[in-house]
Structure prediction request, 412 residues.
Amino acid sequence: MTDRRLRPRKRPGQLRAVETRERLLAAAARVFAEHGYAAGTTNRIAEAAGHSIGSLYQYFPNKDAILVELAAAHARSGIESIRRRLEDGPLPETLDGRLRLFVRAAIDNHRDDPALHRVLFEQAPRPPELLEYLQEAEREGISAAERLLSADPQVSVTDVAMAARLVVNAIESLVHRFVSGDDPAHFDRFENELVDMLTRYLTGPR
Amino acid sequence: MTDRRLRPRKRPGQLRAVETRERLLAAAARVFAEHGYAAGTTNRIAEAAGHSIGSLYQYFPNKDAILVELAAAHARSGIESIRRRLEDGPLPETLDGRLRLFVRAAIDNHRDDPALHRVLFEQAPRPPELLEYLQEAEREGISAAERLLSADPQVSVTDVAMAARLVVNAIESLVHRFVSGDDPAHFDRFENELVDMLTRYLTGPR
DNA sequence: CTCGATTGTGAGCAATTGCTCGTTTTCCTG
DNA sequence: CAGGAAAACGAGCAATTGCTCACAATCGAG
Prediction:
């Protein structure tokens, strides 16, 4: 929690080193998910990875850097998941269908490892560097949403900018809440209702 | 972070003691809000309150107990705020008006001290005792919402149970996000749009 | 005023943490 | 095989933390 620099002190060259780094990251994900951020000590992470702390500190300058790496990877995978779905087939015809696509992507990305997601985005300290990265990603999401909403004749909302923020934040927040919560079975009902909520909101009467 | 019991070891009897306890709690709120949970050390809290750590540990068995006390107080104040608004005047005639009442209460309760709220409900560990308290409060809120929605002829939603959960969680999550974020001015626009979203959702076409 | 009970004090202990650094092991090049 | 570089190791240090406990100050009942 001391050094602000997040760059690795040594970039892995040999294959062996790359594997070590990956094992350390995977172990960190497991340890953080199970013990939380504060109790997820660097020694524990190294031990769980089957390596020494010395090795850990060869690839990460401090504990925060590990967390940032995990969080950024998670965010990237979310964005990638949406991109893949968009390229996979044509954009759904109905607004309803398009919203469902985004909601599904969000659910999948959260369902992956809710415990880790909780640690990363709730209880862990978020260094400014990570915050900027996440805010930038959110801003992109919002402006993309804004473009989609503006171009859609079905959308009857007046304050499109605020609507875009609401939609993006609603999906992110609510999915996070429901997946983190103890509702393993009701995901379908939740998905339907959330899509319904957004659709009715966006296409509602003047 | 050791002792599970959260009961105070000594209940203050004299006025002097009550004041000490209150000064400690107020200082804890300030320190947590400014430094976060991990860096909000018990020594720092005691110092900020103008007392010794010894006194702190006479009224709180451990650090967690202080946090739980603050969180519970915050939740209580939120519930109280809604109750006051409901008793203050008659229940608004329109669904729109009723929703706005709840949204306003949520905004006010969050606006009070966003930094502290962040610490309490995001980065700090939530002991099971507190979690149960909060879940119970949420369940009450949801079932109250469910009753209101069922009784309302304007409400056209089919899955009323899930709708109640969505509405309560949407208000809580979205208000939290927007108030915590850096949007001091756009609160009105946000309030309007959120009320609009919920109204259209609940009264939308079959 | 007396004197036990309540309240307040703070030096310091035991435990834990993030992290360093001197050393050993493994790999790659020629 | 030689030998230098890259990778891995892990005992242990410096700093911090939550918390104890022996004692001092203050209160209030008789």
Notes: Residues 4-203 of chain B form a domain with the Tetracycline Repressor; domain 2 fold (CATH 1.10.357.10). Residues 1-3, 14, 16, 41-43, 53-54, 56-57, 62-63 of chain B lie near DNA strand D (CB under 10 Å from a C1'). DSSP finds nine helices and no strands in chain B. The CA atoms of residues 31 and 50 of chain B lie 13 Å apart.
